[in-house]
Amino acid sequence: FPNMVSLYFCGLWIFPIILFILYKFVTNLKQYRRPDELGLPPGPRPWPVIGNLNLLGHLPHHSLSDLAKQYGHIMFLRLGSVPTVVISSPAMAREFLKTHDLVFANRPATSFGKYVAYDRKDVGYAPYGEYWRQMRKLCTIELFTVKRTESFKSVREEEVSAMLRSILLESEQGIHCVNVKQSLSSLTQNIVCRMFSSRTYSDDELSGGMVFREMVSEISAVAGAFCIGDYIPFLDWLDLQGLRRRMRAVDKVFDGFAEKVIDEHINCRREKERGQEEQGVKDIVDVLLNMAESESQGKEMKITRVHIKAIIMDILSAGVETTSTTLEWAISELIRNPYVMEKAQQEIDLVAGRHRLLKQSDVANCEYLRCIVKETFRLHPPVPLLLPHESMRACSVNGYYIPPRTILFVNIWAMGRDDSIWDDPLQFKPERFIGKKIDVQGQDFDLLPFGTGRRGCPGISMGISVIELALAELIHCFDWHMEDELNMDDVFGLTVPKKFPLYARPSWRLSFEHFSISNAHKHG
């Protein structure tokens, strides 16, 4: 009898679910036809319920690149119930992100935006509209200007010097191979933290026993995950992957951290007001607090603590792992291609010699080094599919019908490896950029590591300045070697880091042997 009761109540749950799935299948039977039969871009026939989610695999940027070889540079997928277009050529990128930029200026609602990005109150995940325009204006006019980037020059130079000293000390202490990934992660975390808060937090323990660097890593991990509930909404409540639980957990830790940062700044400002001390270079939180307290704020948007926390979230998620991952790939490629490293070292030696460290201003005179950075972006873009766009209305692109609320992925990883765009695309050849006016600011659709148009990354200049200086100093100060075979496999996420962290053996190559963080740049 108890078993019969259990089966009865079990049936009460299962039977409505089966009916609901059948109802969705019958009423949406049209969507399971081949896309080209509906005037949509070509693509594979979707399965009921899951659509084409099964085709993504563990490396979606690889899988989508392979599918593009069959269906073309514009293809239509149905990820769960969500209509999706994937493009993988400069011509298509120009069509969608320039010609039809306004139509695709929206961001889709995601679990990350809801649970971690303060219900889309940040810049990166905010829906297109007046709020987003005000936040974007705040970033471009106040936070990430050329002048602001220049004001943090000493921060970049000091932290790069500290990293070099740490690597040198490890090698002198007999550590055979240095954990390059860890050194680069510490560097980018310290620079980013000093930019928004004038101090570092790398080893600070936060609420829940999570260390700061673990929090940053977890934010990046959940931001880049394909959440099933975003694509099959009626399964969202089940949290099958445990992502919603992880998002809420890391959001709680981050919110406590951000509240502490804001409170520290407010207390510090009060102390300085009482002591009438002059403040040096303002960090980003100071700038935002000044705006929040200003009576001249526009009526369109009042800066609150939520806005400040959301911007800190964007800076951490967009500025740490993307930069360190790009640098790790660059060093890996230089180890694989020692003649490229040697050529870059010769150029840097001509600019700075071997008796001092480089300054940020020296980088402008290192053309080949900058070509290395571009070549790294081509083969290893920091965000392989860019952040997704969403169409705000139906439109026609390249003769194909694009439904409203279609998600757009731009597979710039595939674009960088397309032999119809690049000669010898799988070869690391910085020379391909010499004498060519191809930049990474979003104007050249062959190379879009930071996106373009209305949704392009507003912090491009800051990111590139860190990458160029750090890479230049790493190969200026050290020769890099590996005794084992270098594995170049990647893993998918918001960024595409190496599957196995880079360990390499550094050999000091400058004329002076020892330096401290404070006097490293006095040699020049």
Amount of helix: 40-55%
- Give the second-level CATH assignment, the architecture of the largest domain: Orthogonal Bundle
Radius of gyration: 25 Å
Helix and strand composition category: alpha+beta
Largest sheet: 4 strands, mixed
Distance between the termini: 88 Å
Overall residue-averaged pLDDT value: 89
- What is the percentage of strand-forming residues? 5-15%
Please tell me what the overall shape is.
globular
Order of helices and strands: HHEEHHHHHEHHHHHHHHHEEEEHHEE
**Regions with pLDDT < 50 over 5+ consecutive residues?**
1-5, 516-524
Number of domains: 2
- Can you tell me the CATH superfamily of the largest domain? Cytochrome P450
Topology record:
Elements: H1 2-27, H2 60-71, E1 74-79, E2 82-87, H3 90-99, H4 111-115, H5 130-143, H6 146-151, H7 153-172, E3 178-179, H8 180-197, H9 212-224, H10 228-231, H11 243-275, H12 284-293, H13 305-319, H14 321-336, H15 338-352, H16 367-379, E4 389-390, E5 395-397, E6 400-402, E7 407-410, H17 412-415, H18 460-477, E8 478-481, E9 503-508
Parallel strand pairs: 2-7
Antiparallel strand pairs: 1-2, 3-9, 4-7, 5-6, 8-9
Helix pairs in contact: 7-8, 7-18, 8-13, 8-14, 9-11, 11-13, 14-16, 14-18, 15-16
